[in-house]
């Protein structure tokens, strides 16, 4: 009897285990063929983690659901941020077919000088050498996702601020109702519904990547303009599909985020926060005493005491004022930079101080002459500066009409090889504690090989050209006319004298500007949209338009960046940035949505209606903030605290502090 019972138990146990195994197999098979993120176990037991989306080159695009779209974030201020302005939203119902387009806001443009001319209006002398046909005129995320009601969209712009620093100008007030908005993402929640995140980890847990077919919604106008482009005027060829250490895929041990074909400024904010939590540079091959100082600084920045105001700064301009203030203080107290002396002029140690690429020259000049941050002992340095000029590299070595820059890349590779052979510091970190400052359009392609691990401060801060959040820095492109007085003509007319709603003038570079002129040139008296203006002494006509317009259009050219972004700030005109995937300068700390308008390239036909939908109170507040943020974009013969020189250095310092990998 006992023997039979034992046999029965064994048989039933085998059947039970077989049933469990079969069930588990079916579950795995089901999730493999059906579930969108590929791993049922992750979905069941690891719900707080970001779904793995794979590399951009081989992943299958998964359109977001309506619920995912509606939960897209627009404001990323942490609780200790002192921007008391809660972002206000306005749901604007569009009744006409033209107004059915959902709006969100993106970014800027760029030129290329070959000669020593200093005027932006010599843009025709640029030497682009890349096939622009790869660049698509994309539709919005919502269009490609399908099923979303385009007749209603949210626009976000700036934020109310209830606190003012001592002696600071009060926010402009108005009797108008609180219907202002923060121009960024058409799919963002109202401020009352937006979730709040107390830590970076909280934000990361809700972040997911989007992947969009770049060719699914190409404008016939944009496509035609690209096809007509002269072969002699193409930007430098670069492998936008190359995936390497400089890939725009932000990854860590447990997560990876892919970059959508068009990345809104809201999504960039997410990527920035995620990168500072997950991105780490190469671990040093051997330890150094100076490595502990940035690690200690990171701890102090992360635990910065809450600061609500400051007599010298205006808190609402920053994502997190407390963190910025503490980080800047620690930079002043701690940072030491070693500047390599090696290298021959004119490519190295030869600052060029005028024109649209002047940023790299001014930084080089002021950095090499600095005594506060520069150390003569490389063993005491936290950062190492590679003092070459991308503008002078092109001027000295580019063979006109060759459409090749292999010799420019080879020159830089040989320079790095020489530095690595003479000093141990490059090899210790793989160049991760080295940085460069380059404003020429070609700099991303020229530095993609041996300089891929460096911190790159680039004017051409293009996500699609490998800009890495958490490592790279968006360099302001400052058009300097007078090197002896770089702040000459600073400022603009008071608001009552700004009669023009919007202004743009420039050469027809790239595919965006022809579309802008097609829709708005000579079409509306409020919209001063021109091609290249006739020459005037000191560009007086151009400057007058900047000073007398409410909004200045910053439309991309061949590349995403444009000197107009800083020019608008210089002349106190609210910038309207039309350039998809452009990362605006000092993005690590500045809350650009509080003082600038961002538009997708595809929304150009709705430009005027978008600008008119901005309430007067919101415009006045943004224009006032332009005056306050202006100090961060000015060059001075002798550097001044918080000026553009210090802000560039701070962005490099900040990214190094948050990416350093302890030995």
UniProtKB/TrEMBL annotation:
PANTHER family, per database record: EXOSTOSIN FAMILY PROTEIN, EXOSTOSIN HEPARAN SULFATE GLYCOSYLTRANSFERASE -RELATED
Presence of keyword Chaperone: no
A Pfam entry, by short name: Exostosin_GT47
Spans annotated as Disordered: 56-85, 119-190, 214-253
Name of the protein: Exostosin GT47 domain-containing protein
UniProt-annotated location(s): Golgi apparatus membrane
Domain of life: Eukaryota
